[in-house]
Structure formats: structure tokens, C-alpha cells
Prior knowledge:
With about 325 residues, the chain is mainly alpha-helical. It has helices at about 5-25, 30-50, 60-80, 90-110, 115-135, 160-180, 185-195, 195-200, 205-225, 230-235, 240, 245-255, 265-280, 290-300, 305-320; strands spanning about 145, 150-155, 155-160, 235, 320-325, 325.
Amino acid sequence: MRTPVFLLIWLIVAAAVFGGSLAVGNDYVFFAGYVVLQYVVLGTAWNILGGYCGYVNFGSAAFFALGAYSTVAIYKFALDADFYPIPIPFLMLIGGAVSGAVGFGMGYLTLRLRGAFFAIATLALAVVLETLVVNWDYVGGSRGAYIIRPEEIAPIGNYIRYLFLTMMLLAVAAITIARLIERSRLGYGFATIRDDELAAEASGVPTLRLKLIATTISGALMGMAGAPFPYYISYLQPSSTFGLDYAVNSIAMPLIGGTTSWVGPLIGALLLGSLQQIATVTISSAVNLLIVGFLLVFFVIAAPNGIVGLFHTYLQRKPEEFVGRRRVDPDAPGTVP
């Protein structure tokens, strides 16, 4: 399927989902759906570096927070200069540019590290950025910052519907970008890095350049996901963006869904995000990380390659092991190897 057709199909699906949410008549659907779509973007962005290239990134919250605090800084500047409120799509572009630039810089400094050393370096980045934000009074520092959002926006209505629609379009864009990368020469280069980086370097693959591209795209998408967040939450503080939820969920959702395809983060985010929203309403948001931990342990044991890998394994084994309803023993006399 060509990329324009793929994009058109997902835009039709997005329009149907938005129309169905309007038909429900309860704005909480948009509040909960925004969070799930946000995790779709974060999981897809993490998978570009962590799944396609095999470099585990624990700094997802840092890039998300950069996008959010870029919005706060621009909001404060616009208030001081009496500018007209800046549209959310423009704020998302700025947040993506800032996070992408930081991702490029982080990659240039740390991508010569591998394995656990790279993961620790990304975690250190999150700690350093959180310390800077806590001590930056212009964006609220440790006190936090208030963002006053409009009640409604024409012709959509309630502002949360506008945020939901914006995040849905970003999720469609992220999925399309991930699929385009996966099926391009860039994706094949990422796969060689994941499978055997030393062999890829020996074969002439520009591994550092490819990894820098991955960190830049991944960071930019995470920053774009974080840019509308201050308008969603209205009161932003460091613990809201640098929390453990974003770092853990960004990793767990692709691992549960499957890291070798664009479908995996989507399935993992829809499954895990929906379960967390249901638990928040019925029990408490305090059990969200418990749900993540339980599912992560279960899938690591039962399906190490995620739901997509489990499905592929089933499809591959079915024609080999079964003929109709009779199980075929591959070691039986007379069988063709």
C-alpha cells in the first residue's frame, strides 16, 4: 500500500473516531482519548530509536517536557508582549524543533555508547533537564505555571475537543512517518544497526549518521506530543512532565505491542492506555504503574516479541504444524523436511 493511500485511510479512520466521540455526548471521552493518543505518539516515537535501531532510551520524559515547557515559555513571552495567542499547531512545531535539536545533540554526545551505558546517559539527560527547569523561574520553576486556555473554539466547540483532534492528527502523522521509515532504505539501515552494528559498520553503513537521524526524529515527535500538554492540564509543574509515567509507558507500550513494526506501539498504546484510563475512573490512577508492571512482566515471559511477534509466530507455525485438524509430527517417517 502506498503512503498517500495509507495516510488517507488513517485520516478517514480519525474522522470516524472523532465523529463517534461527538456522538457519545460526553466530553470525558475526549479527555481520556487525548491521553491514549498522546501515548500512541510517544510509543511510536520511542520505537523509532528503541525498536528500529535497538537503542533503549530512558529519557522520553525529558523530550516530552521540553515540548511542554517550550509552550510555557512562548505563552509567557506572548503575554508580556501582548501578542495574539499562538495556535497549537505552531506551538507543536516549535516544541518539535527544540526537542529534535536536543535529541540531535544528545545523540552526538552519547550514541558512541551502547547498551546499558547509552540507557544510563539518556536517564541522566532527564535528570539534568529537570534540574534546569526546576530552577528556571521564567517558566514557573518548582512552583509551576498556569496556562489559561479558551473555553471554546469555533467551530469545534469545547477546547478539549480541539486538543483531541490536534493530537489525533499528530498520532496519524507519527504512524505514517514510522511506517514510511520502516519500508524505506532508512529503515533497512536502522535494522542493520539493531541486528549487528559492528557488521553494519564493516559493510559501509553510516551508523552514526543513521542513529543521529533516529534520535532527532524520535525527540521531535516526543516534543510535539508534549507541546499541547500545558493547555490540557492548565497547571504545569516539573513532576507533571518529568514523571515516571511517561518514561515507563513510552518503553512498555512498544514492548507489549512489538518493537519491529509500526503496528506494535499502536496496539500497545491502545491496550495499555485504555486499561489505565478505565482503572483511573473505576479504581485510582495510583494503580496505573502497577498495570504497566504486571503486563510488562507477563508479555516478557509469554511473548518476548510482543503481540505482533506472537501473531507472526502463530501464522508461521500454523501451516507447518497443522493440516486441517490433524497435527503433523515433523519427525515422523515419510515427512518432507
